[in-house]
Amino acid sequence: MTWHLYTSPRSPFVRKVMIAAHELGLADQITTQDVVTTPMTPAPELLVDNPLGMIPTLMAGERMIFDSLTILEVLNDAAGGALFPAGTRQDCLTRHAMANGMMDKAVRILDEQFRAQNGDTEAHIAGFVAAIKRGISWMEPRLTEGRFDAGDIAFCALLAYLDMRFPKFLWLADAPVAARWYADISTRPCVADTAFQTPPFV
Amino acid sequence: MTWHLYTSPRSPFVRKVMIAAHELGLADQITTQDVVTTPMTPAPELLVDNPLGMIPTLMAGERMIFDSLTILEVLNDAAGGALFPAGTRQDCLTRHAMANGMMDKAVRILDEQFRAQNGDTEAHIAGFVAAIKRGISWMEPRLTEGRFDAGDIAFCALLAYLDMRFPKFLWLADAPVAARWYADISTRPCVADTAFQTPPFV
């Protein structure tokens, strides 16, 4: 297995992966490549198979793997590491979520500062919309009838959310496979029973 | 084990958890409670033990568990479910990350729209800063000498990032336990070898 990691020199999420790689003794086996990627202009290298254009992204052979937590688990498994101790896994994941959430907020402070300078709210929205559309296209060939795992549940909840919040964008008009899959999955009791409340919207 | 889930009627992350709970046959065992929580005004119910104030948050007995992926795994384990099939786990987690990333961007579109109306960039930044400070305080009693799991790696990378990007805020002045832990952990080769590049900052 060859490993190639797309990185950015000042990303806390990349740093997390790099610390883990070193701790696990895998750092020498991973080539790295810095890319410049933002919500408005994602790096073309990433768009090949990660339409959100986020770093870190790991090429494991021919496969692109993300996000940083998934990469941590993949590296830990490959090394037989102990970064997710079975006995304290729940506690470990909750602490990880707390740290990761703080990272997200820290990165957004920077983003807010740039935005205040540039007044580019519209550009931000356009970047998010484009990322979502690319994400749906990415998901389409990966949908499988009959399977209903955590990835499927997350995608189903996303489509339901878009349907409720942004119906005017007609997300599924250009995504016939996802539209069919969503129609099918929506008949499952677990999806129907948890439907979002309808207007008034807040 | 009693389960109590803090929810919001239109959160895609909550919906994801609710779909999973229904699919796993656990929905009847989970009480839910809607709360109103934003980056600027987190819900007081959550601040008890989730200083980021994000939903969904699960009370499992006396413990607060988050984020949505951690909750999914906890419920799946409790039910002996198949939401994370061992044979396709890596693929499942990558698809989950893609869907979750799209959710994040979708929610941020709304946030951008509110912000454009309100011009509250400063309030956003203050909200993020406050959340991070609360997060560090939350983490302090959970730090353990000698342990170095995925949660610790994430926290370490966060502190390094804050150190680099926002040194003027002196995050650790009010957090002596975290400061000591960070000084100690920073001597690990895996942390030292992956240090962030120093200025010029971009």
From TrEMBL, chains A, B:
Identify the Pfam families for this entry: GST_C_2, GST_N_2
Specify the superkingdom.
Bacteria
Q: Tell me the InterPro entries matching this sequence.
A: Glutathione-S-Trfase_C_sf, Glutathione_S-Trfase_N, GST_Omega/HSP26, Thioredoxin-like_sf
Gene3D superfamilies the record matches: 1.20.1050.10, Glutaredoxin
Residue ranges occupied by any GST N-terminal domain in the UniProt entry: 1-83
| Cellular component GO terms, alphabetical | cytoplasm
- PROSITE patterns, per database record: GST_NTER
Protein name (database record): Putative GST-like protein YibF
Q: What is the native source organism of this protein?
A: Aquimixticola soesokkakensis
